[in-house]
Amino acid sequence: MTAPERGFPDDEFAARCAAMQAAMAREGVDAMLFASEPEIRYFTGFLTPFWQSPTRPWFLVLPPEGKPVAVIPSIGGPLMRSCYAGEVITWSSPAAEDDGISLLRDVLRRYLGTTGRLGMMMGRETALRMPLADFLALQDSMQGTMNNMALHNMTAAVQRIRMVKSRREIAKIRHICGLACDVFEGLPAWVGAGIPLSGLFRQFKSEALGAGVDDVSYLVGSAGPDGYDDIIAPPSDRPLAAGDVLMLDTGCVWDGYFCDFDRNFAIGSASQTVRDAHYRLDDAVEAALDVVRPGIAARDLFLAMDAVLRPDGIDLVEGDDVGRYGHGLGIQLTETPSHAAWDTTELAAGMVLTLEPSLIYTAADGGPRMMVAEENILLTDAGAELLTRRAPRELHVLD
User: Fold this and answer.
1) Is residue 3 a part of any domain in this protein?
2) Which of 307, 308, 305, 321 shows the shortest CA–CA distance to 377?
3) pLDDT for 260-274, tens place per residue?
4) Percent of the chain beyond pLDDT 90?
5) What CATH code is carried by the domain that includes residue 379?
6) Phi, then psi, of 198 in degrees rounded to 5
7) Which of 57, 64, 181, 317 has its CA 20 to 30 A from that of 391?
């Protein structure tokens, strides 16, 4: 498998910034302030695992035109200067009193003047990655030169831009999906009864790294007789046993872009109840593939899958408490939109989405079990292109 070129040329970031600046002009915003990893990386290419440390704040200011201005700790200066940033202002961080706030204030004053409007991310799936006390101090420090630092929520505009991927982004996601599919397809050769789930997780990560992924940032799963009842817990040391259903859900990364899909397996044998659950999930995926096209809403995908999973409009057992049947995908494991009954986001060509139906059913022991399926797709003008190699309709039974 030939890998795409790593990174992006400057024209990719220039287009992203220009799209954001056009949105700023439409909404009367004089500058954008970003303080979280996805947005700083999206607009500059600043890719580093150093975000794992919560110690230092990082700021990016996007002016009405031109390249963004980075206000960051000096430890990140060399990397940021190689990225798409017009000016890189640094300080020694962590600092006891003023951890970059006065520098950030001075940059914002250039663009906001005395009556400017500052755009920020404030909505669903966003977070302000700086101490609240520092943000309040920034507001206070701006009052001396402004009548009021007016804040404007630009979440929707940023998310609309990020939801539609460029051809280079799509190539990276397609590549990581292919690598992870290879790992899943090789799994039957080394998984069977007696293997502890914790050991299986370690082996999966080893296989994925050996296949060429950069990182296995996300790996969850579960196993139990006739099914599982948890899809986010870390693995236990319990050995797999005949009659178990195993699920692994991975978010592998290549050059900063995620895949996100799962696969289900039965150990030794599978009951008809388990097989039927797998059929129903496959039917739900098919229903979504039948209706997905540009112009429909994210909720339409939910409704198409839900009609298969809960044809009577009621929960099968206790209800599906996962909350949605898929989401966007890209530089984050989960992005907007959500395939949920409330999400009216209009889908457009170039979006990368997951289809993730789930259901709860009754196992042979009378208890509830869960099963989840997931595929990754690219939305095109013609409909959907699978980026993952779709799971077979028949549940794979491992000897």
Assistant:
1) no
2) 305
3) 999 999 999 999 999
4) 91
5) 3.90.230.10
6) -65, -40
7) 317
Number of H helices, E strands in the chain: 10, 18
As a whole number, mean pLDDT of residues 323-351 equals: 97
Q: Are residues 96 and 176 in the same domain?
A: no
Which segments within 160-312 are labelled E, that is strand?
215-225, 244-254, 257-258, 261-267
Transcribe 218-255 into DSSP letters.
EEEEEEEETSBS-SSSPP-SPBP-TTEEEEEEEEEEET
Please answer whether residues 62 and 43 qualify as being in contact, where contact means their C-beta atoms are separated by less than 8 angstroms.
Answer: yes
DSSP for 56-103, please give it.
S--EEEE-SSSS-EEEEEGGGHHHHHTSS-SEEEEE-SS-SS-SSHHH
The pair phi, psi for residue 265, each rounded to 5°, is -140, 150
The overall average pLDDT reported for the chain is 95
**CB-based burial label for 232 (10 Å; 0-12, 13-18, 19+):** exposed
Q: Residue 29 and residue 126: Cα distance in Å, rounded?
A: 19
- Inside any domain, residue 5: no
CATH code of residue 27: 3.40.350.10
Our count of domains for the chain comes to 2
Q: What is the pLDDT of residues 155-185, one digit of tens each?
A: 999 999 999 999 999 999 999 999 999 999 9
Q: What is the pTM of this model?
A: 0.95
Judge contact between 274 and 266, C-beta under 8 A.
Answer: yes
* Dihedral pair phi/psi, residue 157, rounded to 5°: -65, -45
What does the pLDDT look like over 41-54, one tens digit per residue?
A: 999 999 999 999 99
Q: Which of 161, 179, 213 is the last residue of a domain?
A: 161
Q: Which of 98, 132, 161 is the last residue of a domain?
A: 161
Of 83, 251, 254, nearest to 172 by C-alpha is 254
Q: Are residues 148 and 185 in the same domain?
A: no
Within a 13 Å sphere around the CA of 280, how many CA atoms are in the beta-carbon half? 21
**Spatial separation of the C-alpha atoms in residues 363 and 358, rounded to whole Å:** 15
pLDDT for 315 beyond 70: no
Q: Which of 280, 306, 390 is CA-nearest to residue 298? A: 306
**Does one domain contain both 152 and 30?**
yes
- What is the domain range of residue 275? 164-398
Residue 280 corresponds to which tokens in the numbers above? 């129903």
